[in-house]
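Quick board copy: two proteins, each given as sequence then C-alpha cells.
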Amino acid sequence: MHVLHDDEPPVLVDAGIEHADDVGVLQAGNHARLAFERGHGIGVGGGREGFAEELDGDPAPEALVLGQPDLGHAAGTEQAFEAVSSVYDVCGVHQGMSLRQATGSRERNIEVLLLTGAAAFAVLGWYALRAAEFALPANTGRILTQFAASGVIAHVAVRVLAPRARPEILAVSAFLAAVGLVFVIRLAPDVARDQANWVSVGVVAFGAGLWAGTRYARLKRYTYTAGVAGLGVLLATGLFGTTINGARLWVEVAGQSVQTTELIKVFLIIFLAGYLADSASVLASPTLRLGDRTYSGAAYLVPLAAVVIGAVGALALLRDLGSIAILLLLAIGGLYVATGRARFVAGGLALLATTGLVGYLAFDHAQVRIDTWLDPGADPGGAGYQTMQATYAIQAGGITGAGPGLGRPDVVPAAPTDYVFTAIAEELGLAGAAGVALLYVAFLYGGLRVAAEAGDTYGRLLAASIALLMAIQAAVIIAGNLRVIPTTGITLPFVSYGGSSLVVNFGLAGLLAGISHASRKGLTDRRA
C-alpha cells in the first residue's frame, strides 16, 4: 500500500493492514510516515524498508495511516482501507484486492438493489398490461429478458471498469429505460423489440463511456477539436440529411436514421467543459489588471460565442429550434457553474428569447407551434389536436392514473416520442409522473455529487455539464407536455422511443460514472 502526507496534526486511519511488508511509500511528499499499533505501544517507521518498531510481541501489528485522506465516513476496517485506496494510489496490495473490493463494495451492492427495482418495474408493467387484456407483442418475454440481461452486463461493466462509481447513475438510467420500454410496449408494440435492441446497444455505449470516463483528463486535449467536429456534423446534416416533420435532423447510416443533433450534444459538452476549465477564472473577473492598465475579460468569450452562435445558426437552418434551446440553456448553465456570475445567465436568457423571436418570424412551423401553444382550441381538429388530446390525457389520469393499458394515450399522435410523459401521466397518474420527474432530479443530484467529488476543474465541469444536459432536456420536454412552454420536438432522455437519443444518453451516463470512479480513486493525473 502506498501512502501518505506529512500533515499536521496527523490523523490516524485504521487501514486494517497486518504486515509491514504490504506498505510502501509512493509520491508521499517529504517525511511520509507509517505507524503500527501493537498491544500497548505504537512504533513509527518510514520508507519501504525498516518499517515499525516492534513493540510488545503478539498480536500482529495493525497499520495506522498518518495523513489527511478525504474520507466520507469514519475510519475503520475494510471500508477505511477502501477509502484510503480511493484517494492514494495503492500498488501491489490494491491490485491483489481489487476483485474482492469490486465484488463486495457497498456502492455496487446498492446498485444491484436499485437495478432489481428497475427490472421489477418492467415485469410489473408487463403483468399489468396483460391483466388489462392489452395485445402484447408475441415476443414480450424475450424483450424483457434482453432488457434484464443488458442491465446485468452494464452492472458487470461497472464492477470491472469503474468499481468506485456512484451507484445512482446506472440505476437511475436503467429505471428510466425500464419505464420507456414498458410504455413503448404499450404505445408502439410493433417497435418494442427495436427499443430493447437500442437499450442493448446503449449498454455498449455505456461501457465505452465508462472506459473514457476513467481517463477523462485525456478528453481535454480534444476541446477545440470537439467544437469543430460538432459544427462539421451540422454541416454534413445540412448537406446530406433527411427532413422529417419540418426539421432536417436525420442522416441515413446503414439503413438506420441517425439523429445527428444527439451527437452534437456530446461534442458540445466536451468543448464546453474544456473551454471553461481554461477560461473560467478570467470570465469570473469583471476586469483584468496588468500593470497600470485594466482590460475586460469579455474577449475570452469569443471562442465559446463562435461555437455556440455557429451551432445555433446551423440548427436554425435545419429548423431544429428545440435543440437550439437545449444548446443555449446548457451553455448558460455551464457558464454559471464555472463562474458563478449571474450576468451570463441574464445575457444567455436574452439571447434565447431573441433566438425564439427570430425563429417565430422566420419559420412557419415555429409559428404554428407557438400559436398552437397559446390557443390550441383555434384549430382543434388540426394543429391543435395533439396538444388538446395531451391535455385531456393528463387530466384523465388524476392522482393515481387509469392504470397501464387502461387509458387512451394512443390517441395522441406522437405519444411514444414527443408526448410520452403525457402517456405516463394518464396511466400512472400524477404520482407516477412525479416519480419519473424525481428520477431526473436524482440523476441531476448524482451528477452534481460527482462534480463536487472531482479533483480538478475539468472533471467538475464535465460531470456538471452531463448532469445539466439530462436535467435541462427532461425539463424542456416535460414543460412542453404540460403546456408550460411550446413543444420542442426533443425526446425524454432514456424514456422516449428512438435509438440515437437512447444510445447517446447511455454513453454520457457511462462517461459520468467513469468520472466518478476516477475522482474517487484519485488516479486522474497518473492516467492522463
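And the next:
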Amino acid sequence: MPRSELRNQGQRPRHTQKRQMPAHGRQVRMSVRHTTHKSTKASQHALKTTMVVTLIIAASKLLGFVREMVMAAYFGRGVESDAFVTAYGIFSIMTLLFSAGIASTFIPIYTKTRLREGQLAADRYASQVVTLYFVAGLIGSLLAYLFAPAICSLIYRAEVGVELTIQLTRMMYPSLAFYAVTGVLCNLLNAREKFIPEQLLGFILSACLITAIVTFRDIRMVGIAVSVTGVMQTIILLPFLRGHFRYRPHLTIREPKIRRTFILAIPALISMAFDEINHQIDRMIGSSLGVGVVTALSKSYSLVTTALGILIVPITTITFSRLSRIVAKRKKNEFGQAVRQSIEIIALITLPVIILGVVMQKDIIAVAFQRGAFTAEDTAFTAPVFGMYIAGLFFFGLRNFLSRVFYSLQDTRTPMRVGIVSVCVNIVLNLTLSRVIGAMGLTLATTTAALTGAALQLILLHKKMGSLGLRSVVGQVIRIIISLAAATGILLLVLSFLPAHNGETLTGLLRLFAGAASFLVVYLGATMALGVRSTRQLIHMIKR
C-alpha cells in the first residue's frame, strides 16, 4: 500500500466538509457517530479478548515456571544444565526463524487474500506455505544434524560439556519440520481471530519436559522430549482448523504471493531473530566467564520471557491481526487509536513489574529456584543478573510491539535495520561491560540494546506515519510514573517491616505477596486518581 494512502485516509479539505454539511449534516453526523461506535466496540472486543488470552498464557507460563523449577532442582547450575540450555537455545533460533518470521508476512497477505479473493484462494495460499515449510524443515533438520559439532563448538565455549551439547542438539532437530508447520498453522488461526489454540501449546511442552525430567532424571531424555513435543503440538492444532482451513498439498515457489511472502520474510526473519541472537551472544560470552554463568543467564531470561509472554504476547498477537485488517481497509484513525491504546497498556502493566523485579530480585530468584541443587550461593549470583534483565521489560515489550506495527504495514525492512543496530550495540557493550561487572554486564547490555531499538522504532514510525496522536501517550506515561513513585515508597516501607528471606519458601512467598499486594493496591489507586485511561478501560472490562 502506498505510504500516503493510509496516512491521508479519512482526511478531507475543510472547505469541502463545510460545503457538504448544510445538505447532509445529519447524515454526516450519524456516519461519524456510527464509525466512532464501531471503533470503540472493536477496542472493547480487543481488550476483552486480550484479557482471556492473558489468563490462558498466565496458566501456561506458570506451568513453564514449574518446569524451570523442576529443572533447577534436578540439575542445578552445572554442566548438564548449561549443555541443555545451550542446545535448546540453538534449536530455538531455527524454530524462531521458521515460526515467528513467517508471522510478520503471512497474516497480512492471508487476510488480504481472504477479504478480496475468498476462502478458496486463502486456503490455496496457506497450503502452499505449509508444504514449503515442511520440506524446508526436513532440509534444516538434516543440515543441523551434520553441522551440530561446528555450531555447538562455536557457541558453547566452556572446556567441559561440548560433546553433551552436540548430542542434545542432534536429539532435538528431527522434529524441526513439525515445529515449522505448527508455526504456520498458529498464524493462520490468529488471522481467523482464533487466538487460544496457540497458547495451549505451551502446556504440551512443559508437560513433556517435566515428565521426562521426573521419570528418567537423564538430561538426554529431556532432549528427546523436546523433539516429541513438536509432533504432539501439530496434532493438537488439527481439530481447531476444522471449518477454517482445508489443506491441499501443493509445492511451488513460483506463485506471486509465495514469492512476496518470502521476500518480505527475509528481513523479518532477521529482525525477529535478533532477540535470540542477542541472547546467544550473551551465552557465548557468558560460557567463557565460568561454569554456571550460562544457567544464571538462562534462569533470569526465562523469568523475563515469562513476564513478556503473559503481559506482551496477548497485546502484540491480537493487535497485529487487528492492525492488518485496518490497513487492508485503509482506516488511519483506527490505526492510530489501536497503536496508542497498546502503548499505554504496555506502559501500564510493564513499568510496575520492573519496579517489583528490581526491588525484590533476590526474593524472586530464591522462591523460584532455590531448592535441591540450586543453592543460596546460586541465588546470590543470579539475582543481580535478573535485576538487570527485568529493568528492560518495558523496552523489550515496546520494541516487539512496534515491530508488529511495521509488519502490519508490510514494512519488514525497518525492524531489520533497527535490529542490526541493536545487535551491534549489544555486542560492543557485552565485550565492554562483562570485563567490568561480569555476568551483570551481559544483561545490562541487552537491556540497553532494547532501549536503543525501541527509541529508533518510535522515531521511524513517526517519520513514516505522522504523529498518530502519540503525544497524548506521553502525558499518560508521566501519570503512570508518578503513581509508581508513590507505590514504590509503600513497597520499601512494607519490606522494612518483614523478616529477611532465610532460604525458606514460605518466608519468601510472604515477602513477595505482602510487598506486591501493597505496591499494586497503591499503584492502581494512584493511576485511577490521576485519570490514567488504560486503568479505567481495564477496570471497565473486568466489571463487564
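Board note added afterward: The first helix runs from residue 3 to 7.
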